[in-house]
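Justification of computing resources. Each target in the renewal requires a structure prediction run like the one illustrated here; the chain below, 301 residues long, is used simply to show the kind of job we budget for.
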Amino acid sequence: MFSTSQWKLAFRAFISDKAATAGMLIIIGALFVALFAQWIAPYDPNGVAEGSSRLSPPGTDGHLLGTDQQGRDIVSRLIYGTQTSLVSAVIPVLISAVISIVLGIIAGYYQGWIGNAIMRVMDVFFAFPAVLLAIAIAAILGPGLLNVIIAMIIVRIPYMTRVVYTDTLQESQKEYIEAAKSFGVSKLEIMFKQILPNVLPSLIVYSTTIAGVTIITVAGLSFIGLGVQPPNPDWGRMASEGSDVLMQGHAYVTFLPGFAILLLSFAFSMVGDGLRNALDPHERSKVKKKERTEERIQKLA
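Resulting C-alpha cells:
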C-alpha cells in the first residue's frame, strides 16, 4: 500500500521529469483558458466582429489567427473549444474509472462465476474496435456532446476494467490479503480498503494516457458530424469545416484546431508517461538515492 512518504517521493519523481512537467503545464494552461474563456476570448466565438471579412489571414483585420468561412474569430473559437475538449476527455474517463473500479475489483476478487460473467461481458466489447464502436453508439444516440460522452464512457469501461481486474488478481493472492482474511476482515473492506489503494496507481496512469486518446476520438466524431453541432465551437468541427477551404490557400483554418488537438492529447500522454515512471518503485528508489547523494555532497561542502 502506498504510504504518504511514497506518494511524496512519487511527486518528486514526477516533477523531475521535464516532459511530464511540460505536459502538466499545458493541461493546467488549457484548464485556465477553459475556465476563463469568456474573459480571455477577444470576440464572440459564434458572432462576426464588425469590419471582419471571411477567411482573413492571420494578423489581419484585428484577428491574431485570422477568421473562418463565416468571418468568425479563430482565436475565440479555439479558446471556447478548449472547454469542449476538456469536458469530453475528463468526464468520460472519470465516470468510466469509477465504474471500472467496482467491476474490476469484484471480478478480480471473487473470480468464479461472478468474475467470469463480468469479464465475458467486457470481452464482447473487445470484439469491436474502439473507434468503430464509439461511432456506432454515437450514431445510434444521435449527434451532440452529451451523447458523445455517453459513447466514450461505454467504450472506455472495458479497457479500464481489464486494468483493474488484472491488478486485483495479483493483489488478491498476496500475503497481506490472506492475513486480512484470517483476521476476519469483511470482503468489502478487503476489496475497497486493502486492494483498492494498490490498484489505483495503474488506473491513474492508464486513465491519464487514455484521456489523450479520448480527445482525438471525440474530435474525430465531431469531424464526421456526430459530435458538437454548429455553431458551437469545437476543435474537431472546426477542422472539418476548414477542410472545405484547405486546398484554396487557407490551410490555417484546419491546421490550427488540428494542432490544438494534437498538443493537448500529447500533453496527457506525457503526463501519463511521467506518472507511470513516478509510480514505479525502481524510479522512486533512483530519486531517493539521488537525494541522499545530494545531501551528502552538501554536508561535505
